Amino acid sequence: MGKKKNIILSFDLDNTLIDNREGIVNSFNYALKKYNLPPLERNRIEKMIGTPLDDMFEEISNINPKKLSTAFREYYGKKGIYQATLLPGVREKLNELKQKNFTLGVITSKKQEMAIRIIKYLGIYRYFEYILGESENIKSKLDPNLKSFLLNKYKGFFIVIIGDHPKDAALAENIGAPFIGVLTGNHSAAELQQNSTVKTQILSSVKEIKPNMIYSLL
After folding, report:
1. C-alpha R_g of the chain
2. Looking at the structure, do residues 161 and 75 belong to the same domain, yes or no?
3. How does pLDDT run across 27-54, given as a tens digit for each residue?
4. Long-range contacts of 125-131 (CB under 8 A, 24+ apart)
5. What angle separates helix 65-78 from helix 53-60, to the nearest 10 degrees?
6. By CB distance 3.0 to 4.6 Å, which of 60, 158, 159, 196 could disulfide with 177?
7. How confident is the model over 10-19, as pLDDT tens digits?
8. Considering the entire predicted model, what is its pTM?
9. 34 and 114 in one domain?
10. Residue range(s) defining the domain that contains residue 61
């Protein structure tokens, strides 16, 4: 039955498809150093990955977060972007899902243009129907413009949200979509399932996604 449905699998980027911890930590501490702030420990920065950049900086400093975010992107655009790697088995899994006629997309808290650059650099751009990140029209994963884009453009599709962060779970709730949480980030199964009202499945990584499991969530 399910195999005839139009299904979109919408992936988060950092810690779901890619490991970009190195690039993010280095870019974050570059921005702090530029404004004479002490560096943060790696694990503290890693725990914030998946949160919009301005919010990350707002949490740890009184300096205008937009200035720090600009400095972050200065380093990230030149060096940090090239410190990303695909998580194990991601390329093979995207290939398999594409061959099974699933539509694949990306929704990230990153700037959209930066997300596209990374995805192209890592050689997986051809798998995705869309890559949505922070832009003029979309400010966050919970932006009403994002919801209306998805629900209007893909009317008649079943959307499944996949990610490692509570913000991905919140996105699934916001659009009434099933959620697949993966434990390749810094959040536990309990955090990913907290207050969930949509069908949810927790996996250790994207590698474990199987078509029958996707159909069981619809």
Report:
1. 17
2. no
3. 999 999 999 999 999 999 998 988 889 9
4. 127/94, 127/95, 127/98, 128/104, 129/8, 129/103, 129/104, 129/105, 130/105, 130/106, 131/105, 131/106
5. 120
6. 159
7. 999 999 999 9
8. 0.92
9. no
10. 21-83
